[in-house]
Amino acid sequence: MSNEANQDSSAKPTSVSSSLPNSTDPPTFKQIYATLRFCLRYANSTANIFNRLITLLETTDIITITSMLPKEELERFVPMMAQRMTRIRMDIGDIGKFKTLSQAGGVSELPLIRRCDLVPPKLRRSDANKSGQLMILGQLLPRLEHLNMQASIADPFPVNLRHLHTLIVHQSVYQEMLDRICDNCPLLQQLYVRNEARPNTSLDIAHIVKCEQLRDLQLPLMLHTPVAVCYLKNLKTLTLQRQQLWPDMDWLPIVRDIINAKRDSLQRLSLDGAWLTIPLDLHLLQLYRCWALRDVLLSNCKLADPTGHVSLPLSCQRFSLMDCSVSTPLYFLRNSAQMQLLELHKCQFANRGGKLLMELLKQRQRLPILNPLQLHFSDSTPLRSELLSWDQKQRQAWEECLQIRELNDYKMNWKQKLATIIMTFGDPVNYTPDLDQLNEFSHLTPAELLRDL
Q1: Who contacts 140 (Cβ-Cβ below 8 Å, separation ≥6)?
Q2: CB 35 within 8 A of CB 20
Q3: pLDDT given at position 91
Q4: Count of C-beta atoms within a 10 Å radius of residue 362
Q5: How do strand 237-241 and strand 420-425 relate by DSSP bridges?
Q6: 326 neighbors 347 (Cβ within 8 angstroms)
Q7: Which one is predicted more confidently, 413 or 89?
């Protein structure tokens, strides 16, 4: 016994420091387990090494490691884990096992854990083996706020996850499950329903109105009752996605209904048409009715000539095309006197590519503009050739209406995934401005204002 004790005491100074590698090298499973065993045998419960170990265990297979601990060490470690752990990552099929381990350590719940990542099972399991797992999870983690469900699950969404602020569902989402989420999670601020396993499912989002705190919402493109989003007063970002061919024009009425329902607060619309099957007629989205809309950003779209006279609202200040095919962007700039930035990057022009800049200049000269239009373009031989044909004096003379800049190695400056539509909302513009508060021109008479114009 004395020899063993001497050997243990001599090993203590080197084992803790040498078991875990430097911060640049992630520790292996064996290193974490060996260090944990050593610390549980010799280190004080308040030692900082336990903080580092628990931080590592938050993103690794904690179930396997704790299940390998002897009973005495498990009973010591589980209470420390409950007092320090703030997030956990586990197999969806191991939730019941984790509950058993926690109870064996004398802990019924882990109240400090705020985030949980549920990953698919290592071995293929049937949905029956996962029945009731989310209910058990809610019992173990009563204060859970962030749940990332990467695994598919057929469970009804339980009522004991009411503190969730963020929910991400990657795989299958059934109508009943979505309704239960809306009923049982009134504090949700971020909901991402990606439905990667069932992309053709059309969900009815009528119950979404119960999540009044929602700020960020991601849904499949094909929906029923899309106007329900107009009741979400706190909504800032709505993302619609479909990673398959978009069904002709069936998606367009859904998006148009949402745009019309939020037309007084829609500030920015970005659309990637990588999976569009027919040319996009921008006029059919009725953006011209959105008097708060400032930015329209399109990528990977083949644009049809607008069927109406106006496609963009008077409030629009930025119109960006990236990897788009269009006959001429002039169609979209009619009556856009407030437009400040036009971006044409890697675009193809079917008609009048060699005269586009001159026609754009003439169009701007006919409008009652207050500021010159900034035109940024890249990877366009026709625009570069026409710009080089203008001499320096012409450019300076026309800068009051149009300022042109060619960019090299341009990268898209807005975040946009393929085949997604992103809408950004702000405070609703549903009031008449108080002219008495516009002090800048309050001292001028109408005649003086007309003279200045």
Answers
A1: 95, 98, 99, 102, 109, 110
A2: yes
A3: 87
A4: 13
A5: antiparallel
A6: yes
A7: 89
